[in-house]
Specification:
By secondary structure, the chain is α/β, with parallel strands linked by helices. The chain has a single domain, classed as TIM Barrel (Alpha-Beta Barrel). The chain has helices at residues 8-13, 34-43, 46-51, 53-66, 80-87, 106-111, 117-120, 122-135, 148-157, 165-173, 175-199, 216-232, 256-259, 275-282, 301-315, 335-348; strands at 72-73, 89-92, 96-99, 141-146, 203-208, 237-238, 241-242, 245-249, 266-268, 287-292, 321-325. The strands form three sheets. It has a seven-stranded parallel sheet. A two-stranded antiparallel ribbon has the order 2-3. The protein binds coproporphyrinogen III (CP3). Residues 26-31, 40, 46, 73, 75, 77-79, 96-97, 144, 160, 207, 209, 328 line the site of coproporphyrinogen III. Coproporphyrinogen III (CP3) binds at residues 26-31, 40, 46, 73, 75, 77-79, 96-97, 144, 160, 207, 209, 328.
Amino acid sequence: MSQLQNDRFLRALLREPVDRTPVWIMRQAGRYLPEYREVRAQAGSFMDLCRNAELACEVTMQPLRRFDLDAAILFSDILTVPDAMGLGLYFEPGEGPRFERPLRDTAAINALPVPDVATSLRYVTDAVSRIRRELNGTVPLIGFSGSPWTLATYMVEGASSKDFRHIKALAYDQPALLEQLLDKTARAVIDYLNAQVEAGAQALMIFDTWGGALAHDAYERFSLAFARQVIDGLVRERDGRRIPVVFFTKGGGLWLERIADCGADGLGIDWTLSLTEARRRVGGRVALQGNLDPSVLYASPEVIHREVGRVLAEFGHGSGHVFNLGHGVHPQIPPDHVAAMVEAVHALSPRYHD
Ligand code: CP3
């Protein structure tokens, strides 16, 4: 069953033929859009916006009204899961996310519950259903979560971190305890993502924003192993259609061959390697999503056009590429520059498809 008018994004992730390369943008709903800032102010706080299905739906739709994008992404945050585990998420203006009760000792980790997603994260699945209705079959809806490792970094550090001192001390001093935390988090993430699929998400993305902060063997043990556990636990088909999964380890380029075996249909690629190399190294096992340097969008529309052309050429001919930035769009980017990027993908990509 598929009443989807535009399924390029889903097809590209399954490496099926498309007429042009699909494009969406990480953080496509966000502060670079004046209409987002307006709704955000109306909502009060960022979490009030996430908890209000009507407003979360509205900001999800905003970038689709401006740009001809091939996918919508649920408006929410990765930190809703630790919040549901009782850590008390809040945002300090200008300082990013914080937890009232970070996990700093064995007792806190032992006492951590796996949340009942159906009740404590109902506001997210309500938003998913509402967005699906509003999209009305135009483009697919992406659901998402943080990876267990990335969520654990926030839970243990209590905020964004530059040195990851608390979680790295835990990893080296008490690795079995960290694995216990990651296992609990993975079980919560599986329930959370499957609930999003149940509510209508048509593809899933797992953000491993901090995987690249790990040493090579620690990456395998603390990030990749638990990403695999999550992916193995996901519902992969619904209404007769595959639910593709994209896994994105920022800074994971050195480990691409290993990451390609995690069970995902597609891998997010940051801007530190060329898609030519990435494609050669994954050997057709998975699709690739990325990888324009988000800072290119500070430059002029002419330069943006040229750089989009370069990324498309680096992937080359055939399906299996979803165009995106290598990380989220920065809040100071002019929306016109985002429009120039999307138009360049539309204009330049058909030549790479038969
Ligand atoms: O992509 C989208 O449009 C969907 C929405 C989305 C948000 N966060 C909205 C948001 C998604 C997919 C995320 C994921 C997320 N959140 C990640 C993984 C992706 C990545 O960027 O690496 C991470 C690490 C977080 C944690 C988080 N949430 C941080 C560090 C911050 C502060 C960021 C900042 O720039 O201040 C948030 C808040 C947040 N999440 C905002 C948005 C639009 C900004 C909050 C605001 O409006 O004040």
